[in-house]
Amino acid sequence: MLKPAPVESPVHNLIRERWSPRAFADKPVPADVLRSLFEAARWAPSSNNEQPWAYLVAAKADEENYAKTLGVLVEFNANWAKSAPVLALAVARLTFSKNNAPNRNAPYDLGAATALLSVEATARGLFVHQMAGFDPQKARQVFEIPTDWDAFAALAIGHPGDAESLPQPLKDRELAPRVRKPLSEFVMSGHWGHTASFLSK
After folding, report:
1. Residue 196 placed within a domain
2. In Å, how far are 81, 122, 188, 198 from 154, measured between CA atoms?
3. Is residue 115 within a helix (H) or strand (E), and if so which, with residue range?
4. C-alpha span between 111 and 116 (Å, rounded)
5. Mean pLDDT, rounded, for 120-131
6. 51: left (phi over 0), alpha (psi -120 to 50) or beta
């Protein structure tokens, strides 16, 4: 199922077509395709080229680690994410490797890496649903994440499935129109709250 974004200005089709389904097809993601997704993340920009990201990844065939990953999700997310062929946790190192000073940009850089991963996935007919609904402390314990790293998101990755497979409330969300704030609400110039003049047509 494709669900292109209703854009205000033209953008690349990969941006329009990227979205976050909850219905996934029962179809594995080949290892070479997974490698390409994380290769895309590898080439994201980062402060001082620190590359402060890591991903804990489990395909369904890896039953033990898949179950561990599913087990750190909140129940609401686990109920639909269990259909995704790949689950992952996105983790960032909060200190610089060279001097252990705090790296306030680490979550931003992790987001950039995961955004590129998502675009690469879209280019390959896959979709990524990112989730804040998981237990970071449980993830730390289960996966022995070091103290200077934090898990910021969980990811469900796979081919789009049939919305009819979802329970009604989730099916309604899956089929609902996509909505975003207008550019005029968040693109500013000169001072806070002043809409950038280039947005005027």
Report:
1. no
2. 10, 18, 31, 36
3. helix 106-123
4. 9
5. 98
6. left
Kind and range of the H or E run holding 107: helix 106-123
Q: Is residue 198 part of a domain?
A: no
Distance CA 5, CA 120 (A): 17
The model's pTM: 0.95
pLDDT in tens, 169-201: 899 999 999 999 999 999 999 999 999 999 987
How far, in Å, CA of 151 to CA of 57, rounded? 12
Tell me, rounded to whole angstroms, the distance of Cα 65 from its chain centroid: 19
78 membership: H or E segment, kind and range = helix 75-81
**Which CATH number do you get for residue 96?**
3.40.109.10
Is residue 185, in this structure, part of any structural domain at all? no
The 10s digit of each residue's pLDDT in 3-46 is 899 999 999 999 999 999 999 999 999 999 999 999 999 999 99
Q: Evaluate if residue 1 carries a pLDDT over 70.
A: no
